[in-house]
Amino acid sequence: MKDECGICGRVMRTTYMRQCQRCKKLFCRDCMTPDVATGDPNAMLCLHCASRIVSPRTVSKYAGLEGHLKFRSAFTDTVKLTFARIDGLIGSNLPMAAYRDPLWWSNASSSEHAKAWLNAGWEAQEVNLKEGYVVFKKVRVLPRKAKKKKLEITQPFTPVPVHRPRSKVPSKTKASKLYARIKNLERQRSMQQPIRGLKGRPPSRSRLTDNKPQ
Ligand SMILES: [Zn+2]
Ligand SMILES: [Zn+2]
């Protein structure tokens, strides 16, 4: 018996999978974490549920689906989405009702999830619970915020300036300057040889700071 992990989508034997304590669906072990509240290693949570517990949502659970359909409406009239894909879009798991009850997919604006695709201008046209997918049909074109986008596009295209990598070989003048500087430093060092502790402050300097007039 094999099943698909609801998060990463890998298909594997169900014996390698665990059931999430919250949504009761099967996931691979990589996509699960022990429940922090209980610390019980047998009470595993899927990463979707774990993140929901840590940071409860403030926007609609299905905003990701709405956004996706709005985006697709620019290119197509029909979109087929697997339930696993929708899980990915909404960053959560569809409820069990979505897998069991075709009525869950009805285009009733009273339900939070249907509102998501209706707001985007789409309707659920066909649902296949056995194969786990739904087909959405675009029913209206939203008054898109195209004006803003058009303004952006009317600007002339300016290519990104290309930065040529600087030659790693220093120029001859630069090299000779550096060489001269090194020579200078060497000469200075050899002149200061008798003095110990080059880094120590010369006494005249400290006296100057001490006797600063106020
Ligand atoms: Zn997984
Ligand atoms: Zn879960």
Q: Characterize the largest beta sheet: strand count, sense, and whether it forms a barrel.
A: 3 strands, antiparallel
Query: Mean pLDDT score, rounded?
Result: 83
The distinct bound ligands, ions and cofactors come out as: zinc ion
Name the helicity range.
25-40%
Our estimate of the beta-strand percent is 15-25%
Task: Give the CA-based shape.
Answer: elongated
Number of strands: 9
- Spatial gap, N to C terminus: 89 Å
- What integer value in Å does the Rg equal? 34 Å
What structural category do the secondary elements indicate? alpha+beta
Walk me through the structure.
By secondary structure, the protein is α+β, with helices and mostly antiparallel strands. It starts with a strand and ends with a helix. The protein has a 3-stranded antiparallel sheet. It has helices at residues 47-54, 63-72, 83-90, 96-100, 112-119, 146-154, 172-191, 203-210; strands at residues 2-4, 11-13, 17-19, 26-28, 32-34, 44-46, 78-82, 122-128, 133-138. The chain contains 8 helices and 9 strands. Helix 2 packs parallel to helix 5. Among the domains are: 2-54, Herpes Virus-1 (2-Layer Sandwich); 63-138, no CATH class. One zinc ion binds at residues 20, 22-23, 45-46, 48-49, 93.
